[in-house]
Design a protein that fits this description.
mainly alpha; Serine Threonine Protein Phosphatase 5, Tetratricopeptide repeat; disordered N terminus
Length: about 220
């Protein structure tokens, strides 16, 4: 393990170094650590690489690949909470680049993993909400079926504001009523602020309403 230390030092001192060599060094170090069972350290380096790709190189697909690799390493160490954090980054980016099925799989997986955990189950409704929005963009009927499934899996989801919003949005969408769609979002947002990710997906759904101008005003 003596050879790993100088590599770490080189990776962390990125001053006067272009981004691609720095990310390459991180990847080389990750590969040198995994045969020795240092999966947690390797996972952290893959996260560092992913962050370089998302913030400096703006290559989302490569960032996704490294977050997925980090999640796999964390799973190997049974660090499920850390694995879930990486997977949620993957899910968010997959939805952003319209890889909705992959995003749905991730949100359903993380939701199922957290709904029986006393400390984390409150977050499960958010993951099922995000999965539902991804379904909604693909197909309205898909969203209906998915919401029913999530309610059955996690009864607390039925009483959540997220689930009630989804049902209002489905009703407005069925009626092709863009005003009702927007009003439901505004009511929700007045209590629970929607971030840019949610807003982006909701706009994509709203644009499928005939004659809609594509905003949430």
């Amino acid at each position: 393990m003596h050879f790993a230390k100088p590599h770490v030092s080189t990776c962390n001192c990125r001053t006067n170094t272009t981004v691609p060599p720095a990310s390459l060094m991180q990847e080389m170090l990750s590969r040198s650590l995994t045969p020795m069972g240092r999966f947690t350290i390797a996972a952290k380096h893959h996260i560092n690489i992913a962050e370089i790709y998302e913030s400096e190189l703006v290559d989302i697909e490569k960032a996704i690949a490294h977050y997925e690799q980090a999640a796999d390493y964390y799973k190997g160490e049974e660090s499920n909470s850390s694995a879930n954090k990486c997977l949620l980054k993957v899910g968010a980016y997959c939805a952003q680049i319209e890889q909705y099925q992959r995003a749905i799989e991730i949100y359903e997986q993380v939701g199922a993993n957290t709904m029986d955990n006393t400390l984390l189950k409150y977050s499960a409704k958010e993951y099922f909400f995000k999965a539902s929005l991804c379904h909604f963009i693909v197909d309205e009927l898909n969203a209906k079926i998915a919401i029913e499934k999530y309610e059955e899996m996690f009864p607390a989801f039925s009483d959540s504001r997220e689930c009630k919003l989804l049902k209002k949005l489905l009703e407005a969408h069925e009626e092709q009523n863009s005003e009702a769609f927007t009003e439901a979002i505004k009511d929700f947002d007045s209590i629970s602020r929607l971030d840019q990710w949610h807003t982006t997906l909701l706009l994509r759904i709203k644009k499928t309403i005939q004659g809609d101008e594509g905003d949430l005003k």
